[in-house]
Amino acid sequence: MLELNLHDLPDITTSRLLLREQSLSDAPALFGLRTNTEVMRYIDRPRPREVSDSEAVIKSINENFHRGMNMIWAITLKENPEQMIGNLGYWRTDLANHRAEIGYMLHPDYWRQGILSEALTAVIDFGFNTMGLHSMCANINPANDASRQLLLKHGFIKEAYFREDYYFDGKFLDSEIYGLLNMEMGTLLHLS
User: Fold this and answer.
1) Distance between CA atoms of residues 42 and 156, nearest Å
2) Quick one: signal sequence residues (predicted)?
């Protein structure tokens, strides 16, 4: 079984970004993301009713990190590391199988600037080269073409399409699953 021996969620830096642990001071920004209609259009999860709901989510995320269940970073710009503009990371880990599910969200003010792609590259690298993952997956709403294109750009391959496998808000919804193997990532790096 894969073991994560990290006492704290490590910061990850890229040319423009600092990915860091989420703190309770990020709760208003997370609340803003999770109540934004554009951000949540294809994220089929309950919306928070107040900022304290987002505080509870952050506490749960950080507690679950210490249990080895997830690793989720706040996305910030290096010049303003206090302001969370999105988050991404491994929402579920399957340590027995060296696999994790990746997910992300970004404020619309920062869409189409390559920010999520830059952050995703760094987190994929961390997953394979630091965590020791063998594979990762992403579960998207099939209508979310932007997310699909982002995953394909990063080498993910469509693994499955599940019809009406998820019940949310009174409806059965479909899911698309994309996957990436560690050995495929190495091939992608050599091709670029």
Assistant:
1) 19
2) none
All structural domains of the chain, each given as residue ranges with its CATH number in brackets, are 12-191 (3.40.630.30)
Task: Check pLDDT > 90 for residue 167.
Answer: yes
Q: What pLDDT was estimated at residue 83?
A: 98
pLDDT in tens, 141-162: 999 999 999 999 999 999 999 9
Tokens of 12: 């990850």
> To which H or E segment does residue 103 belong?
strand 99-106
Could you give the CA distance from residue 41 to residue 181 in angstroms, rounded to a whole number? Answer: 28
Cβ neighbours of residue 145 closer than 8 Å, sequence gap 6 or more = none
User: How far is residue 148's CA from residue 154's CA, in Å, rounded to a whole number?
Assistant: 10
Tell me the H-state helices in the chain: 27-34, 37-40, 51-66, 115-126, 145-153, 182-191
